[in-house]
Specification:
The structure holds two protein chains of two kinds.
Chain A lengths: L17 H6 L7 E2 L2 E2 L1 E2 L10 H14 L9 H20 L8 E4 L2 H16 L5 E5 L8 H10 L2 E5 L9 H7 L4 E7 L11 H9 L5 E4 L11 H4 L3 E5 L10 E5 L1 H6 L10 E4 L4 E3 L13 H17 L1 H20 L4 E4 L8 E6 L4 H9 L3 E2 L1 E3 L4 H7 L4 E5 L6 H18 L1
Parallel strand pairs in A: 3-15, 5-6, 5-7, 7-8, 8-9
Antiparallel strand pairs in A: 1-2, 4-10, 9-10, 11-12, 13-14, 14-17, 16-17
Chain B lengths: L3 H4 L2 H8 L12 E7 L4 E10 L2 E10 L2 H14 L4 H16 L25 H15 L6 E2 L2
Parallel strand pairs in B: 1-4
Antiparallel strand pairs in B: 1-2, 2-3
Helix pairs in contact in B: 2-3, 3-5, 4-5
The chains are: A alpha/beta, B alpha+beta.
The complex binds pyridoxal-5'-phosphate.
């Protein structure tokens, strides 16, 4: 093992113990054919540690009941676990209060929820929503739909050749009709980490609220929604070492209180008659129907897992690994990195002269290396850089220098095939 | 996992490097565009038809080695064929790349090199995009063909 973490001497409390971390992820010992799996598609979804898997099965084996409804003890146990998970997510994002956390299916639903409630009740004809070129489709399409419905306009902040947000242009685009800025914290196709605090300051100076898509950022760095000052922040559980089908929306309490409900149904009401229905208080107003109880509880275990390791060692490990991987990949003949912002994390998008990304993906897969190829749900980014697709290796806390060496070895095989 | 060389056969690599019948077609009678949103492959097919026979077929676009080679070999394969023969070839080609048990139909000629694709389900769409697009062209269908 090359062990990048060992190349520098550092306070041992802040160094990630690679072996111990890897042991906690059962899938990392699987084989692809006769090769051990190298998993480098973390930006698509992360693997799950045993504590999360165990928590899910304990819930179903010992605590399963519907929540908020039963007077019997088991229902109370399930309710406490579910609401306890909300409190964990609130602490993880440094929200003021658990009531500012709405459970959703994923980040996509979090953004759609804001578009359909806050957006729908705020936007009128001629108003504007500001996003950026580097948004995931899930932070583009909900706003396009809304703008179309309302006769509003979508404004797009451009990015530089390195993949950095053009803040000067943001200032130009923020106008009297801007009703919301919705921006990604960390780009899933470039790795760029945006200066969210600055974006928020500029938007708030004009009384414009800001939604931040934290799908990528939240498993690579500490997120403090109060320090960022944003008004909404969305995360998706399956990228936080947690289960699929669960995500969370942080919303500033005053905004959530003022927003109309999202979907109608059980749990989101306080009383229903055919004349008038009054809605439950936040966050329940936004959680109609039986939620993904197990998923929320699993997500609670996942954020506990990250907190127990701590973001300081995670960030340090991933930063060193990113540097190692950047050097290793740029040494590959004909390889060009897409996304070279000084502020970036854990993502390496690249193209290889004369070889389409899709062919790279297939060939490295035969070596047991799982990477993503395509447009990564960011077609405007591909257009901006004039490439049809990229290959993307994305890191998580359990990756190590061996994984990068295996990727580079597999890329040699691509050259052998394509000459 | 089967051998990579079954997928990336020399003929495929050759047609990827130097695609035949590549570029615009002056005075085309029928045209269609195809798109594979998953990987960003884009292709346009243009054909000339005389008395129900494909007298010329050319393509343009960008894509992976499999999709480019497939388009290139397809243009060679269908030139001189009647529209009905081209449609029948499409069906045989589809079977070749999707059906694990299909015997290779000798009438497919060089196109048989794509038999390896059937072991890579994620790549079937790449191989078949050009054919869907040709089919749209000869059926005079103006919707953009999408593999999704
Ligand atoms: C930046 C970004 N935003 C949004 C999403 C959407 O996440 P989900 O599909 O879990 O809603 C993703 C991941 O696919 C992402 O990387």
């Amino acid at each position: 093992m090359t062990g990048v973490a060992r190349t520098e001497s550092e306070d041992s409390a802040h160094v990630l113990d690679e072996t111990r971390i890897r042991e906690q992820f059962p899938i990392l010992t699987s084989m692809v054919g006769d090769r051990p799996l190298v998993y480098l598609d973390n930006a698509a979804t992360t693997q799950k540690p045993r504590v999360v898997l165990d928590r899910l099965s304990r819930y179903y084996a010992a605590e399963n009941a519907n929540i908020h409804r039963g007077v019997y003890q088991l229902s109370q146990v399930a309710t406490d676990a579910y609401e306890g998970a909300r409190a964990k997510v609130a602490r993880f994002l440094h929200a003021s209060d658990p009531s500012e956390i709405v459970f959703t299916r994923n980040a996509t639903e979090g953004i759609n929820l804001v578009a359909q409630t806050f957006g729908r009740s705020t936007l009128g004809a001629g108003d504007e929503v500001v996003i950026s070129t580097m948004e995931h489709h899930s932070n583009i399409v909900p706003w396009q739909l809304l703008c179309e419905e309302k006769g509003a306009t979508l404004k797009v902040v451009p990015i530089s050749d390195q993949g950095e947000l053009d803040l000067d242009e943001l200032d130009v685009l923020l106008g009297p009709r801007t009703k919301l800025v919705s921006i990604v914290h960390m780009s899933n196709s470039l790795g760029t980490v945006n200066p969210v605090r600055e974006v928020v300051e500029r938007a708030h100076a004009r009384n414009v609220p800001v939604l931040v898509d934290g799908s990528q950022a939240a498993y690579h760095m500490k997120v403090d929604v109060r320090a960022l000052g944003c008004d909404f922040y969305v995360v998706t559980g399956h990228k936080l070492y947690g289960p699929t089908g669960i995500g969370a929306l942080y919303g500033r309490r005053t905004l959530l209180d003022a927003m109309p409900p999202y979907q109608g149904g059980g749990d989101m009401i306080s009383s229903v008659t055919f004349d008038k229905t009054t809605y439950n208080e936040v966050p329940h107003k936004f959680e109609a129907g039986t939620p993904h109880i197990a998923g929320a509880i699993g997500l609670g275990a996942a954020v506990d897992f990250m907190t127990s390791i701590g973001f300081e060692p995670i960030v340090a490990h991933e930063r060193r690994l990113l540097e190692y991987a950047t050097n290793a990949l740029t040494a590959v003949p004909g390889l060009r990195l897409i996304g070279t912002a000084p502020q970036k994390a854990s993502i390496l998008s690249f193209v290889l002269d004369g070889v389409h990304a899709h062919d790279i993906g297939t060939i490295v897969d035969t070596e047991g290396v799982a990477i993503r190829t395509g447009h990564h749900c960011t077609q405007p980014v591909m257009d901006r850089f004039g490439v049809p697709a990229t290959a993307r290796a994305s890191l998580a806390m359990y990756n190590n220098a061996d994984d990068i060496d295996r990727l580079v070895g597999a890329l040699t095989k691509v050259r052998e095939v394509f000459g | 996992m089967s051998d990579l060389r079954d997928l990336y056969q020399e003929v495929i690599l050759d047609h990827n490097r130097s695609p035949r019948n590549f570029g615009p077609l002056e005075g085309a009678d029928l045209k269609a565009d195809g798109h594979n949103p998953l990987c960003g492959d884009k292709i346009s097919i243009a054909v000339k038809v005389e008395d129900g026979v494909l007298t010329d077929v050319r393509f343009e676009g960008s894509g992976c080695a499999i999709s480019k080679a497939s388009a290139s070999l397809m243009t060679e394969g269908v030139k001189g064929k009647s529209l009905d023969e081209a449609r029948a070839m499409f069906e045989r080609f589809r079977q070749l790349v999707t059906d694990q048990n299909a015997l290779v139909d000798p009438s497919l000629g060089k196109l048989a090199v794509f038999a390896g694709v059937r072991d890579y389900p994620a790549r079937v769409k790449c191989a078949i995009l050009a054919w869907h697009t040709l089919r749209a062209a000869v059926d005079d269908n103006h919707d953009i063909v999408s593999t999704e």
